[in-house]
Amino acid sequence: MLRVLGFRVSFRHPHKYLLHYLLSLRPWLNRHGWERSPVSAAAWALLRDSYHGGLCVRYPPQHVAVAVLQLALDCYGLEVPAHAQAQKPWWQVFSEDLSKAQIDQIILDLIQIYTLDAEIC
After folding, report:
1. Which GO molecular function terms does the record list (predicted)?
2. The whole model's pTM is what?
3. Coil vs helix vs strand at 27
4. Cβ count near 14 (within 10 Å)
5. What are the tens digits of pLDDT across the range 17-54?
6. DSSP of 41-57, one letter per residue?
7. Scanning 13, 24, 61, 118, which has its CA 20 to 30 A from the CA of 51?
8. Taking Cα atoms as reference points, which of 78, 74, 83 lies closest to residue 111?
């Protein structure tokens, strides 16, 4: 069991990062879009589901938090304003060592969890 876990038996959870990112991102978004769509509830649900696949062991907690937030925003069709004109993407404000490719990979791994769940049922 320890070998499968890479001898990592303790890790930092992404919950505190997600909370910080949600509180920081909310003023950046359109107030009406934020209130009409349950982005934060979806992000929390995605984060809870990420524990079924071990994402929190394989990726840094900041990266997991950004990825679930990005997926929640994508699900509701929300974009961070001025993202195209910014000097760097919004997620690099929170985690400078994160790339779009890494976010996409984490999202794919999270979607894989739902795919496996559907195959089992």
Report:
1. cyclin-dependent protein serine/threonine kinase regulator activity
2. 0.84
3. helix
4. 25
5. 999 999 998 888 877 777 888 999 999 999 999 988 88
6. HHHHHHHHHHTTTTHHH
7. 24
8. 74
User: Residue 77, by phi and psi: left (phi above 0), alpha (psi -120 to 50) or beta?
Assistant: left
Six-digit token string for 104: 């996409």
For 15, half-sphere exposure in the C-beta direction (CA atoms, 13 angstrom radius) is 6
- For residue range 40-92, what is the model confidence (pLDDT) as tens digits? 999 999 999 998 888 888 899 999 999 999 999 999 988 887 666 778 888 89
Tokens of 61: 């907690």
Neighbours of 79 (CB within 10 A): 13
Instruction: Report how far residue 102's alpha carbon sits from residue 117's, in angstroms, rounded to the nearest whole number.
Output: 23
